[in-house]
Amino acid sequence: xxxxxxxxxxxxxxxxxxxxxxxxxxxxxxxxxxxxxxxxxxxxxxxxxxxxxxxxxxxxxxxxxxxxxxxxxxxxxxxxxxxxxxxxxxxxxxxxxxxxxxxxxxxxxxxxxxxxxxxxxxxxxxxx
Length: 128
Fold this sequence. Notes:
With 128 residues, the protein is an all-alpha fold. The protein has seven helices and no strands.
C-alpha cells in the first residue's frame, strides 16, 4: 500500500498545483500543501488497514519537499502530454475508500475531479 500512498500523494500534489514536485516545493505554501496531501493519503491507507510505516512516511515527506526536484508522476506527465490518465485505478479508489471510512479527503477528491475533467476533455477531443 506504500506504493499507492506514494502515487496518490505525488499525483495529488502535481496535478492540482500543475507543476513538478520541485516546482511545488519551491513556492510559498508548497511544502505545507505537499504535507497535507501526504497526510490525507496516509490517513486513508491507515484507516483501510494498511498503515504507512513511519520510515516510509518520513522518506516520502522528504521526497515531496525537495525544491528543484524534476519528479513528476506518470499521471501528471499524461496531463502534460494530453493523454488519458488512470485516475480511477488509484486516486478514485482511494477516494472511495475514504468515503466508505467516513474520512475527509478534500485534496484527494479535488485531484480526482481535476483528472476526470482532463480525461473528459481528452475523450471529447478525440471524437470526430
